[in-house]
Amino acid sequence: MTKKPRIVIIGAGMAGLTAANELYTHSNSTFDLSVVEGGSRIGGRINTSEFSSERIEMGATWIHGIGGSPVYRIAEETGSLVSDEPWECMDSTVDKARTFVEGGFEVDPSIVEPVSGLFNALMELAQGKENDVVLGLGGIYENATNVGSFLKSGFDAYCSSNGGEGYGTWSRRSLEEAIFRMFSNTQRTYTSADDLTTLDYAAESEYQMFPGEEITIAKGYVSVIHHLASVLPQGVIQLNRRVTKIEWGSCEKEGPVKLHFSDGSLVSADHVIVTVSLGVLKAGIESDEGLFSPPLPEFKSDAIKRLGYGVVNKLFVEVSQRHFPSLQLVFDREDSEFRFVKIPWWMRRTATIAPIHSNSKVLLSWFAGKEALELEKLTDEEIIDGVLTTIACLTGKEVRKDTDTKPLVNGSVNNGNDDDEVLRITKVLKSRWGGDPLFRGSYSYVAVGSSGDDLDAMAEPLPRVNKKGGQGNCHDQNKVHELQVMFAGEATHRTHYSTTHGAYYSGLREANRLLKHYKCDF
Ligand SMILES: Cc1cc2nc3c(=O)[nH]c(=O)nc-3n(C[C@H](O)[C@H](O)[C@H](O)COP(=O)(O)OP(=O)(O)OC[C@H]3O[C@@H](n4cnc5c(N)ncnc54)[C@H](O)[C@@H]3O)c2cc1C
Ligand SMILES: *[C@@H]1O[C@H](CO)[C@@H](O)[C@H](O)[C@H]1NC(C)=O
Ligand SMILES: *[C@@H]1O[C@H](CO)[C@@H](O)[C@H](O)[C@H]1NC(C)=O
Ligand SMILES: *[C@@H]1O[C@H](CO)[C@@H](O)[C@H](O)[C@H]1NC(C)=O
Ligand SMILES: *[C@@H]1O[C@H](CO)[C@@H](O)[C@H](O)[C@H]1NC(C)=O
Predict the structure, then answer these.
(1) What's the family (predicted)?
(2) Would you say residue 480 lies in a domain?
(3) Shared-domain flag, residues 317 and 396
(4) Would residue 486 count as lying in a domain?
(5) Domain assignment of residue 436, yes or no
(6) Is the CB–ligand 4 distance for residue 407 below 6 Å?
(7) Alpha-carbon distance values, 502 to 18, 194, 304 (Å)
(8) Given the CA of residue 411, which atom of ligand 4 is nearest to it?
């Protein structure tokens, strides 16, 4: 009896567990299979948690279109889409959001809606869908290279014809411009690009979305992860096993890949599926030590360097009142003399503050780029101060910054009662995707200077057989052992990168590559 081929999957996130599930259920024990995970939990960038006795998502939140989504299919089949408890479903953001601008004005929807219509139409155009709204804007997309300047020319073309009333120090045009910036800030959190001028325009039309509603998962995103992991026998998934070096490319017949772990242990494997994030790969090729030995061939490391990978974080705050409205936040320009200097810079590109469901005391905001990184460094007190100052300056609402329960106004003691007129923040929880060495950011995007081809290059297994470059240490092409290092993860999917379903498909792809290689068909 020959030894079973040993497959080690690095990372127990969506891609790694999908690959493990597929390999296990289709191979009838042909393989010696393990999943090594550097962290102390499974799920990776899926991190369902609890805050203020509510179920919340620190990472992946939405099923981006239920039509045809494999994540939706699993969530539905496992009964994860229903729950007796309320969950982070954002049911009060749709249609009911109120828009406030710096200076303390609420803006009428009749001003916000045309700008939102324009923004959405421009993004649809960038994504290759025709629409009537922007037809009149004349060729603005012809020479577009990045999403940021494309949006700017779209807005400029649209605005040349406007007039109408403003509010206070706001002219109508400056107001519309600020509202447009707010939608652009939402786009920063969708893409993780700190600056939309670094987001490649051409790639935008390659990105695919599923049709249908976007929903969250009532029992938590992690229920999909648990379902995938549930078929694997005990011991297949190994937690707290961080890989520090991947030696590959030797001519050895058995176990040509050697994995070094942070505890000094060593495992050899026939095939390794690397699912670590693009951020971890970037760090892995930049550091002197290097995650790969020999270093990755140029075609691979160039793709890793060129593609974009940004930081997006979520901030949850528990407030003293229920039925807080969903707010859209419109800030003045950086160079405006009318700005409230007390609002910290890291709040100024936050587009919304909204309860996670209509009866919740938990409010959620999304942060991207520099602001998201700064959020990770702030103390809870700084965050409370910044959020409350922002709410006060935009809505005129009375807020209270200390968290103790001393008398508020003369005679009236704050007792944590829901009906308090004065808004307080009682608790804070934030994600930390940027600083965590197992992630180093949130998700990938096609940066200016890269393209969909780089995403395909990310997916190519090593060594590259019969192609120049990438043979590793084996100099005899005929002896080279195939499929030593394989790559899965959201950053390896050309049209669904950045998503959980992209990660899912990439896991299936690499599992099936191996099943085909071994002619397994169970
Ligand atoms: C804040 C946030 C919001 C998001 N929102 C959405 C959303 O609404 N909808 C959506 O579809 N997607 C969303 N995403 C993206 C989605 O979460 C990811 O695309 C997807 O989960 C990535 O899965 P993956 O398997 O490719 O990578 P990961 O989940 O990162 O899995 C890789 C695993 O490798 C482990 N690892 C790293 N280094 C090592 C090492 N050296 N040794 C061993 N193990 C290691 C990590 O701990 C991790 O568990 C969001 C992500 C974030 C951060
Ligand atoms: C799976 O493997 C077992 C043991 O090797 C064998 O008896 C069985 O027939 C196999 N199943 C299929 C479907 O081939
Ligand atoms: C696009 O570029 C071409 C060539 O430089 C130029 O002739 C054309 O006017 C540009 N189109 C727009 C809409 O700017
Ligand atoms: C505060 O309350 C006390 C006792 O009820 C009263 O005598 C006093 O005038 C109040 N002060 C103010 C500023 O309202
Ligand atoms: C995952 O969630 C836990 C809370 O349950 C939190 O402590 C941790 O920081 C989260 N991970 C990241 C990377 O944000």
Answers:
(1) Belongs to the flavin monoamine oxidase family.
(2) yes
(3) yes
(4) yes
(5) no
(6) no
(7) 11, 22, 17
(8) 2
Select from 408, 409, 410 the residue to mutate for testing ligand 4; criterion: most ligand atoms less than 8 Å from CB: 410
Each residue of 321-355: pLDDT tens digit?
999 999 999 999 988 888 888 999 999 999 999 99
Residue nearest to atom 4 of ligand 5 (CA): 49
Regarding whether 40 and 74 lie in a shared domain, the answer is no
| 186 and 279 within one domain | no
| C-beta of 268 in contact with ligand 5 (< 6 A) | no
Flag whether pLDDT at 472 surpasses 80.
Answer: no
Which domain does 182 fall in, by range? 110-204
Asked if 225 and 249 sit in the same domain, the reply is: yes
d(CA 192, CA 176): 24
Is ligand 3 within 6 A of the CB of residue 142? Answer: yes
Q: Which two tokens stand for residue 475?
A: 């100099």
Into how many domains does the chain fold? 3
Q: Is a pLDDT exceeding 70 seen at residue 163?
A: no
Residue 438 belongs to some domain of the structure = no
pLDDT tens string 116-160: 999 999 999 899 887 776 666 667 777 899 999 999 989 988 865
Q: Residues near 59 by Cβ (< 8 Å), separated by ≥ 6? A: 43, 44, 45, 46, 47, 221, 431, 433, 442
Residues 426 and 447 in one domain: no
Among 181, 204, 227, which residue terminates a domain?
A: 204
Residue 56: enclosing H or E segment and its boundaries?
A: strand 54-57
